[in-house]
């Protein structure tokens, strides 16, 4: 058995999670920003209810009503969760994943069993359901059935080649194990003398013969449900069809103190003594799982409203930890001291995802969701939100929709949609892939149109532009350089490249991978950004290059991008670059389909490389990167959800302003970096002991300096009070502070 263990102290993690929900996290540490709205499964523990999303677990305490979360950051395997169950006998939570991995949380220890994941099954390895019986966990999977000894935390048997394509669920009645499969029902005796690994010792029932989506033992009565068909009860060796919900679409059936709980595609039912009763709840949208506790409270895993606590139709509650509404984080942006996340978007072949889930805002450690299902305002319909900018003159957010035009959000959270049919608009369609504020108005891209660029001025006037190259018909992104040049990223599906234009000077130029006409590593461009020195950085399907200045891009002169090299090798030449973001230290955060890299300002020195194996990243596919310039926290949007990492660079000003030392005091269990932020740009920082002896000196990275709590010899600083002195290079502006070390 392949097994690793990660030790967790839950009360410490819970306290830390509550702290980081409101405050900064230390430099060099991570936090997750996951959605808890789509709950896929629920499990009942001792005074605790467990809700599972695809990426995390959250725990609701029935006594004190507290909520804590368990994520990859806390030690979960990090794959996509597909099933959970709780063993009262072993006081253990069992978590199954789509890749076959298994986590068992027992006595505050997470044990990961990787046997199924790493075995060479010819089928998929997804764990579909977990059934608990007397200290054993029975895993129903696409591969077959595995049995786990929860006391020993080991797999005792794995049963494969049973015939059907997959096992959906299992249940035990008497001394027999029953399996609901994609092709009817199988059963085998659990008598130790019977070899259940041998398919010949399994009985196949001729009826019902379709796919059995769910099976459960409720009050020592066995029931099954066809996915599209009927409900059956097992009576004296025969499956008897019940005269209820015939032809309905079943999702799941579960045991109840009073009969049976049934989930169909659009309703929840209780089936007791041949009587069917609807369980009504206004919070229910689409149910994945349902259980009833000993107090007759029904716990519902809902795909929109999280974990629903149902006491009566008039006494219900939606339980959702703070997080974005969805893990579909297509685009992020840092605007007005807040992080915004857009979940709409455009596929690689330029088709919309058809998502209508609004946008999400992270402010002061808490998330607010703006959509019809969220706790924010109800927004007008605007699908596939994909880009965002801020108009400081009107104090409005302008959000691009690839189906419905532009969503405007006012400072009071009221909204309106501006599109092709809006009076005065010059838009030719409502397919908007990009927006940016500049030149007293909003620059707007109009996909698929001959006039694909528009400017909507603060004075209300619209203007469209005719460009001299047909390639500009399919733009996907736009930035405005410091010299007012507009850089448009063109769709790789239609030739790709970059188009640079300036409406004031008349400059228009298509740049691609042709020598003297861009000289990019590839014509497929997926990212463009301007750094603090005015260099234009470009991410392609074959690495990174930059143009020395937007000013050097003339209409006719020969222009070739510069390719940075690391150890003589072109920068990330084998990677598809998905995003480039510049931090306050002018360093480059570069996202790819194999994780994220941080390079120095020239792109010639690698500082960090994060992926799913060495960090809490949920996926290696990086879609967007945004940076909170106030504290240096870097937000990574992946195709599996959002995480953040506190970096070491923050925005700076000419003088010291609101300097913060964090954490302070430094305790014996802290082994990270102390951040001194709010410093003047590139200030010189000295740390001395109380007698004035110099311990360490460093230069701020933008507005932040960091200290590893060690002297020049690498020895940890002794317990005591230390002085922090900071000054600009000319010594005109200074700061003095104190910090304590307690070992």
Mean pLDDT: 92
Number of strands: 69
General form: globular
State the major sheet: 5 strands, antiparallel
Features:
single chain; 743 residues; mainly beta; Lipocalin; Methylamine Dehydrogenase, Chain H; 4 domains; five-stranded antiparallel sheet; 69 strands; 2% helix; 48% strand; disordered N terminus
Describe this structure in words.
This protein is mainly β and 743 residues long. The protein folds into 4 domains: 1-160 and 280-323, Lipocalin (Beta Barrel), CATH 2.40.128; 163-265; 325-466, YVTN repeat-like/Quinoprotein amine dehydrogenase (Methylamine Dehydrogenase, Chain H, 7 Propeller); 660-742, Immunoglobulin-like, CATH 2.60.40.1930. 2% of the residues lie in helices and 48% in strands. It has 2 helices and 69 strands. Strands 1-10-9-8-7 form a 5-stranded antiparallel beta sheet. The protein has a 5-stranded antiparallel beta sheet with strand order 21-24-25-26-27, with no helix packed on it. The longest helix has 11 residues, at 10-20. Residues 1-22 have low confidence and may be disordered.
Summarize the structure.
With 743 residues, the protein is mainly beta. Strand 42 and strand 43 form a beta hairpin.
Task: Summarize the SSE layout with pairings.
Layout: E1 3-7, H1 10-20, E2 30-33, E3 41-44, E4 48-52, E5 57-61, E6 67-70, E7 81-87, E8 92-97, E9 102-106, E10 109-113, H2 115-118, E11 127-133, E12 136-141, E13 144-149, E14 154-160, E15 167-173, E16 176-181, E17 184-189, E18 203-204, E19 212-218, E20 221-226, E21 228-229, E22 231-235, E23 238-241, E24 248-256, E25 259-264, E26 268-272, E27 275-278, E28 287-292, E29 298-302, E30 306-312, E31 315-319, E32 331-335, E33 338-342, E34 359-363, E35 366-370, E36 385-391, E37 396-401, E38 405-409, E39 415-418, E40 435-437, E41 441-445, E42 453-457, E43 462-465, E44 475-480, E45 486-490, E46 498-502, E47 507-511, E48 517-518, E49 525-530, E50 536-540, E51 543-547, E52 559-560, E53 565-566, E54 569-570, E55 577-582, E56 588-592, E57 595-599, E58 606-610, E59 622-628, E60 633-638, E61 641-646, E62 660-662, E63 666-667, E64 674-677, E65 684-689, E66 694-699, E67 704-707, E68 720-727, E69 734-742
Parallel strand pairs: 48-52, 63-69
Antiparallel strand pairs: 1-10, 2-61, 3-4, 4-5, 5-6, 7-8, 8-9, 9-10, 11-12, 12-13, 13-14, 15-16, 16-17, 17-18, 19-20, 20-22, 21-24, 22-23, 24-25, 25-26, 26-27, 28-29, 29-30, 30-31, 32-33, 33-34, 34-35, 36-37, 37-38, 38-39, 40-41, 41-42, 42-43, 44-45, 45-46, 46-47, 49-50, 50-51, 53-54, 55-56, ...
